[in-house]
Amino acid sequence: MSPSDQSSFTKGFSVHNAHNRDRDGSLLVNIQSRVLASLSDLLTEFFHQMDDAFFDRAEQAATNNEQNMYFEAMRELRMHARDVDNELRKELAFQFDLLSKKQRQEDVHRDDDLSLVDKDRVEVDVALSNIRNKIRTSYPDLQLQFSRLLNHYLGIDWLNEDNHPLGADTLVTAFSHAIEKLDLPLKVRLMVLKYFERQVVENLRQPLLDAAKILLDAGVKSEPANTSTTSTPPAGPEQQAAPGASAAEPQPAASQGGDSPDLHSALAAHYETTVPFEQVQALMTHFYKGSLNNRLFAVKQGQAAPELHREDLFSVLSRLQSAERDSLQDEDPANSHYDHQDVRLLLEHQLAHTVRQRGARKLKQADDDVINLVSMVFEFILDDHNIPPEVSLLLGRLQIPVIKIALADKQFFSDAHHPARRLLKLLSQAAIGWEKESVLQRDLLMEEIRNVVTRILNEFEVDNLSLFADLEKSFSRFLQEETRRAKTVEKRVLQTAQGQAKTEQARNTINQLINDRMQGKTLPSVVIDMIDGPWRVLMLQRLMRHGRDSDEWKHCLKTVDDLIWSIQPANAGSDRERWVKIIPTLLREICGGLESIKHPGLEVDKFLAALWEIHGQILQTPPDQQLPNSRTVDHTLTEPAGSPVAVHHTPGNSPASDPASGAELSAIERQKKRAAERKALLDPKQHAQSDLRRQLLTMKAGQWIEVHTLEGKVRRCKLAWRDTNTDIYIFVSRRGNKVLETNLDSMIRMANADELRLLENVSMWDRALSNVLGGLKRNVSREAETSSTD
User: Fold this and answer.
1) 757 has which bridge partners?
2) pLDDT tens-digit profile of 349-378?
3) What DSSP assignment string belongs to 718-738?
């Protein structure tokens, strides 16, 4: 990241100086930004693990006091997690600030004074000392290398494995101060330190590698220049290319979109325009009226006139590129007022002035065609809503460098794997899911894109196309790390959603099984309430834990069958031997099942007594008569599928079933009805909605959409998971957080109300070039048709 775009995390401890953009400051800011971002991610995972650990301990607590202690600890950490994160950042930012001034802080760790008589303090200090030793023994080589790199870079000799910003003393002391104000008992505080050791200390390798790599990439060596050997950190996972992949080709994991291969390939094939420059020139001849030679210099098509030399043209473009660079440096990232039209007008003004100054009359026609076509492409990019406007405006500043590339290398239009086109593709695919962050959160993606644009404007010359390949590699590594973090969060979201869907499906299965067994039967109210209440809970528990093929589930279902059979007076009369035999087993199964779900013992005894009384009444009731306090079950009166069974007291007054009502259908019938509806949705005769519905029905994981929320916000999210059984779609942000949970009908309504729009995760350059050339070709065809008609 360039010095002009850097700012410190913590107010008051800034390494950046707007009036002193020195090399030391910029590299230290890069290291500080990367280190603090990595540690913040580790702390986030640390707090998740602590929350889970406290909850588990609370569930297993032997006493109420112990349980309350863990619940209070959960509450304390949840309330102050951000404070701990900010305090740790502040402590480490202070260390970087000292380094920038080359000042040494004496007596860094102030917690190891074991002369304290306070027993709690001693135990905490022992735990902190153990963490320091763990850091020293886990990463001795990396710690030594990083301290040597910093010493050599800053020209000092007092940094060692303990006192640099990621050293054992510095890091442990910073965390100790960060949690110092938390109101935690000793037992809980020691747990916090232990989990910090597990989550943060054991994952410190990557931040150390990243910090060392920034210095190594800048040419810093861990030994003085006259030393023959240079220490290089071992390659991390993101630095090792996949087998068979060249250095210039980023791996697919770098793509933020996460599209399915079929969807991505189809879009890429549709938009990946490769056209020889000769065809571009032939096409542009039909639009000479809009050319610079015609509009600026009033030169007729084909008219001979002195032409501006290529060197003079590149001189104009270089001046404009420098102006773009200065404009970007002075711009407030939060309030961009970049105007593409100003760039085009400025380019035309500078060209007109230079042409007159050099005694020329026009541009070379090939140069004119390139400038005209690239300008049209960037106009399309800035008007295209597929990419957020904030990103489009930033990437629009690359117009002048792209013109220079296209002028110098005519293969730019015909080579889809040109380094510049690959970089533009990577940037646009990363930006499709970008959303403006809150003021409390750093926008790392926008910072990285801004860094790429800044470096191109600062460093690009016609002879160093390798800059684009280098930027592609570094941006790919950044995206891989972004994707890794997002996948972790997304995994939790999907596990929750899939668990809920599985539970809902199990409930529907149980509802259908119970309804099939009870529908139309006249049963005692106490039995209906028991089956529809606690026994339904037991069935759900056994189905979720053991599955439909397990003996536990089959016994649970058989108990329902035996219970319903045993309370039918006709059965007791026709098969008395079986009836007498199953009663004791039935009572044991019911008692054991209800006790296994911790149903209140008093309620269990009450039901068993009532059931015993019912069985006694059966012996005295004629087969054709109903038992007292009975009612007829009729689940067709139930509104939503999955709710408890409906009953009414008189068996003959149920309304006629309406087959159009999904609530009155069986599970199989509802599935058939849903399949028929889906088939109808894909009916090509429904011209108005068929395309939209087909797109929504055939969406693959990774498809990005833009939605307008009820709060009036515009969100960008991608499809992470779809459950075909429940018709649920889960959409997540680029960070992996859940944004939207909806179904097909809701999405169709939103799309018809212009509240939902499908996005295309493709290269913005390919998409724009394809549309511009397609529009030009259509205009040529229309002109040809008009001429033939005349």
Assistant:
1) 706
2) 888 888 888 888 888 888 888 898 898 888
3) EEEEEETTTTEEEEE-TTS-E
229: pLDDT confidence band, cut at 50, 70 and 90? very low
Starting from the edge strand earliest in sequence, which strands make up the sheet with 714-723, in order? Answer: 738-742, 728-732, 714-723, 704-708, 756-758
- Residue pair 328/457 in contact by the 8 Å Cβ criterion: yes
How far apart CA 634 and CA 644 sit, in angstroms, is: 11
Residue 758 phi/psi, 5° resolution? Answer: -80, 140
From residue 38, how far is each of 103, 106, 475, 485, 546 by CA, in Å? Answer: 25, 27, 16, 10, 41
Predicted confidence band of residue 245 (pLDDT cuts 50, 70, 90): very low
Question: How far is Cα 46 from Cα 69, in angstroms, rounded to an integer?
Answer: 19
* Nearest of 231, 155, 223, 218 to residue 23 by alpha carbon: 218
Q: CB under 8 Å to 390, separation ≥6 — which residues? A: 336, 434, 436, 446
Q: State CA 78 to chain mean position distance.
A: 22
Contact 615, 581 (CB under 8 A): no
The residue type at 362: K
Q: CB within 8 A of 93, min separation 6: which ones?
A: 8, 9, 10, 13, 15, 32, 36
Distances (CA, A) of 402 to 195, 385, 407, 459: 51, 21, 9, 13
| Cβ–Cβ < 8 Å for 728, 743 | yes
The amino acid sitting at 378 is F
- The candidate with the shortest Cα–Cα distance to 657, out of 666, 645, 649, is 666
Exposed / middle / buried, residue 207 (Cβ in 10 Å: 0-12, 13-18, 19+): buried
In this structure, what token pair is assigned to residue 208?
């150390």
SS3 content of the chain, % helix, strand, coil (to 5): 65, 5, 30
How far is CA 673 from each of CA 156, 241, 745, rounded to the nearest angstrom? 77, 50, 15
User: Closest by alpha carbon to 131, among 105, 95, 92, 167?
Assistant: 167
pLDDT band at residue 732, thresholds of 50, 70 and 90? very high
Q: Where are the alpha helices (DSSP H) in 101-139?
A: 119-138
Distance CA 278, CA 289 (A): 19
Task: Tell me the C-alpha distance between 414 and 416, whole Å.
Answer: 6
238 vs 244: CA distance, rounded Å? 15
Is 754 a residue whose pLDDT tops 50?
yes
How far apart CA 512 and CA 668 sit, in angstroms, is 10
**Domains parsed from the chain with CATH numbers:** 3-224 (no CATH), 262-437+444-483 (no CATH), 496-650+664-668 (no CATH), 684-783 (2.30.30.140)
In angstroms, the CA 634 to CA 342 distance is: 74
Tokens representing 616?
């006694």
Q: Which residues are CB-contacts of 223 (< 8 A; sequence separation ≥ 6)?
A: 148, 152, 229, 230, 231
Sheet bearing 647-648, strands edge to edge: 522-524, 630-633, 647-648
DSSP state for residue 656 in the 8-state scheme: P
